[in-house]
Model the fold of this input.
Amino acid sequence: MINEEIQQQINSGKMLPLMEQFYTIQGEGFHTGKAAYFIRIGGCDVGCHWCDVKESWNASLHPPTSTDSIIENAKKHANTVVVTGGEPLMWSLDYITSKLQSLSIKTHIETSGAYPLSGNWDWICLSPKKTKLPLEGIYKEAHELKVIVSNNHDFKFAEEQAAKVKNTCELYLQPEWSKREKMMPLIVDFVMKYPKWKISLQTHKYLNIP
Ligand code: SF4
Done:
C-alpha cells in the first residue's frame, strides 16, 4: 500500500516505479548500436501476448524510486537515456526529462502511445499495438514508428499506422522475436517492395546483452 506522500511524489514524477536500470547498447530501431542508459519503468496494460517483459506489467511489484537517484546513476554512464517499460507514459515524465536535458543528456522514449504524452523528448519511438491503440496526439510527435510483425495482418496495420505519422518519421518493421524465422523473409520482401520502410532487428538479443 503506497502512502499519500509517496503517491504525491509519483504523481509529480519525482518518484517512479522502477523495474530496472542498466547501461547497454540500444539494440533496436534508428539508434541501434548507440550506448545508452536504460530506465525501465513498471506498469503496462496494453497486453501484447508476445510481450517479453511481462514482469513489468504489475506496477505495484516495482518499488517507487527517487527520480533524482535514477538521474544520478544515469549521468555516471551515458549522454543518452532511453525510458522504456512497461508503458512509461502511464507516469508523469516531465520531471525526469527536464532534469536530464538540463544535464545535456538526450532523452529517448519507447512507447505504445496508449497514454497521454508527458516529458520533453529528443527522440520518440512510437511502437503501436493493436490491443490498445495510440492516442491521436502522439502520431505527429513521433520521430520513429516501429511496428512489430508477428503475422501477415501486421503489414496492413503498419501501413495504417504509417499514414498517421509525419512524413519525416522513420519507419521500421521489426519481427516479433519468436516468429522471426517465419516472418523475416516476408519483411525482407515487403521492405524491398516498399522501401520507405526499414528493418529493425533486436540486435541486443543476438549479442546476448540486455
Ligand atoms: Fe509488453 Fe510493451 Fe506490449 Fe506493454 S506495450 S505488453 S510492455 S510489449
